[in-house]
Amino acid sequence: MLALEMFRSVSRTMAGKAIGGRMPGVLSGFAAPLRLVTVEEPRVARPGWARLRTRLSGICGSDLGALSGRTSLYFSAVVSLPFVPGHEVVAELLDDCEDLPAGTRVVIDPVLACAARGVEPCEACAQGATNRCARITVGHLSPGLQTGFCHDTGGGWGEQLVAHRSQLHPVPDGFSDEQAILIEPVACAVHTALRAGVRAGDRVLVSGAGSVGLFATLALRELTEAGEIIVVAKHPHQRELARELGATEVVAPGEVLRRVRRSTGAFQLEPEFSSPYLLGGVDVAVDAVGSRPSLESALQATRAGGRVVLSGMPAGADLSAAWFRELEVVGTYASARADDAFARATELVAGDAVQQLAKSVANYPLHRWREALDHAHSAGRLGTVKVAFDPRSSS
Ligand SMILES: [Zn+2]
User: What is the pTM of this model?
Assistant: First the structure.
């Protein structure tokens, strides 16, 4: 079968680390450790597993981070190279899988936790916190935090993959594939909204209006009693979408402190040779980008004792505010089975706003991967919320 494969290349990883973040285009050029290959289909070796044929597979910010070498080497211990990327997947079953007959259209929860690995549940999995699984490197599978980072399972950027019944969620009949591909990222946003610990009337800042920030805004609006939700957006199209998905107000990156100050009566300080920050501010801030400026703006705009949620993969930041303002900094990774995140996400995706948004999903065949990655890298500017591969397509 045809698949895109991420392979080990220390020199390209280092080159990517040096320049990948600064120069769009380099991402899909010589530095990307990705290639289109013909490989054997991944096999089903155990009960509870089935083969799937990919219909669509999204490109996520974490994929772009891995390809450009911006991702921390921390993660090198929880992947197994070479692997076929693609953890946002809509596919159809090629085999019966327990109660699901062959032909069923599904989306997958990519986390490869104890159930999929055929080991006794760890403490986290026993409580339904599958995203905190402690056994993501053991059992009958190679290491891999998720499908799309594991050598054995294949991923959505290939024609076929394998998945365990515990990962499968059937797609409602009325959904287009473009709608269904948004379920996994929205499930992560559902988890983010739950981790945000928002109380009734809380003021919330969402820093970033790419798909992570937009879906977090939607989930915060629909699943919490947040009062004002201020969203930081760079591009005109993102501003419009943020409002449609539940933002009370949308601001440009340079206006955040001024706007939060106006709404909360916070006091702004101007430290020497450094960026300003607030005493007072929003109750909860969600960093939906992971860049240093985005995370720092979340830290600088949150009131003492407030909560900062790391939803983008963080690149580092000045943590002075977290210490001085006694902030609760919490991570949010994937989604937990106990959240019922996929069921809730499916309901959110059925809503009008997301149905409209699904119409803008851009699809590419595998062989046009360089264009697809460039498009995903510039998605915000180009007004695209999701770029995906359709491995069935050849044009
Ligand atoms: Zn586990």
Answer: 0.95
